[in-house]
Amino acid sequence: MLSNRFMTYVPPEFDCFLLYERKGRGTLFQIGFLHRDLKPGNLAVGPIGTPQFRLIHIFDFGLARQYVITSGGERPKLRRPRPRVHFRGTLRYCSINCQQKGEQGRDDDLWCFLYMLAELRGPLPWASIRQVPHFPTLHCPKKC
């Protein structure tokens, strides 16, 4: 059982957070895209005191990837997964699959969201870890 000192108060406004955020990601998934970098810094609520306050806005689609291919009038197809990919996302919120450089799917976005929800209740177990695993960088020998 977790100690109460690790629990933080979650305001009642967050009871709708899951529903609205899920709706936003559902829309993203429906048009065939993955966000691949869901984290608190990429989410915001609408203006306080307005009906939009209860809406969750998703930002920063710089790492988004289309996972459904649509061409002409053909039926949509899932993009073939790549065997190895470079790390994408924020280490603190990414899934194990992402850390192992696997192709990201809808479930990886869901893991990011689960970690964010867990963090609303208290720090993630790995939040205090400062050692970052080695991710190789590419060096260009010539000036690019």
From TrEMBL:
<dbReference type="GO" id="GO:0004672">
    <property type="term" value="F:protein kinase activity"/>
</dbReference>
<dbReference type="InterPro" id="IPR011009">
    <property type="entry name" value="Kinase-like_dom_sf"/>
</dbReference>
<dbReference type="InterPro" id="IPR050235">
    <property type="entry name" value="CK1_Ser-Thr_kinase"/>
</dbReference>
<protein>
    <submittedName>
        <fullName>Protein kinase domain-containing protein</fullName>
    </submittedName>
</protein>
<dbReference type="InterPro" id="IPR000719">
    <property type="entry name" value="Prot_kinase_dom"/>
</dbReference>
<feature type="domain" description="Protein kinase">
    <location>
        <begin position="1"/>
        <end position="144"/>
    </location>
</feature>
<dbReference type="GO" id="GO:0005524">
    <property type="term" value="F:ATP binding"/>
</dbReference>
<dbReference type="Pfam" id="PF00069">
    <property type="entry name" value="Pkinase"/>
</dbReference>
